[in-house]
Amino acid sequence: MKDIIIAPSMLASDFSQVRESLDFVKKNGAQWVHLDVMDGHFVPNMTFGTKFVQDMRPHSDLVFDVHLMVENPEFFVEEFGKTGADYITFHVESCYHIHRLIYRIRELGKKAGISIVPSTPVSAIQEVLGDVDLVLVMTVNPGFGAVMPRPWLMPAPMYLPQDLLSSRIRAGQRV
Question: What structural domains does the chain harbor?
Answer without folding.
Answer: 10-172 (3.20.20.70)
